[in-house]
Amino acid sequence: MPGLERMLYASRATGRTDSLLNMATILGESQRNNDRDGLTGALGAHDGRFIQVIEGPTTVLDGLLRRLAGDPRHRDIVILDRRPITQRQFAGWSMVSSRLGPETATALDRLMATPETSALEIIALLRETLEVEPARAA
Ligand SMILES: Cc1cc2nc3c(=O)[nH]c(=O)nc-3n(C[C@H](O)[C@H](O)[C@H](O)COP(=O)(O)O)c2cc1C
């Protein structure tokens, strides 16, 4: 089995992140490609910035990074964390949206002040705010 990695990056959006159309377009493309490529993850947008966690095989992640770097919808990509993993945290989600509402935005602002040391907490925050039916809740 090829090595799995998980990557967290932040970038600055060039368009509006409060546009449902912008976000739905990015999510739709991501889901179609990631289904094909075996990638999973979550995407959040906050204060004109994207935060995305992506997990999958190393070479596939590298390929996506090259496409992301050439995408004019964002700039200033900063990789906050990238490490080998044994298990996916976003299995089943080819790309899911995280809703970073006012209450989580404050926590995220705090974490983003020291993103390199807060990567795991940022990922946990994205994981807690997924916009999906809480199937696991009774
Ligand atoms: C914030 C952001 C997140 C993205 N996430 C993904 C992703 O997870 N997977 C993906 O294939 N493309 C993603 N894209 C789109 C890529 O940059 C690129 O446009 C796309 O992969 C090219 O797909 P195509 O070859 O089908 O045109 C993202 C773009 C932005 C702006």
Automatic annotation (TrEMBL):
Q: Name one GO molecular function term.
A: FAD binding
Q: Which domain of life is it from?
A: Bacteria
Tell me which InterPro entries the record gives: Acylphosphatase-like_dom_sf (IPR036046), BLUF_domain (IPR007024)
Q: Which Pfam families match?
A: BLUF (PF04940)
Q: Which residues form the BLUF domain?
A: 4-96
Listed transmembrane segments:
none
Could you tell me what this protein is called?
Answer: Blue light sensor protein
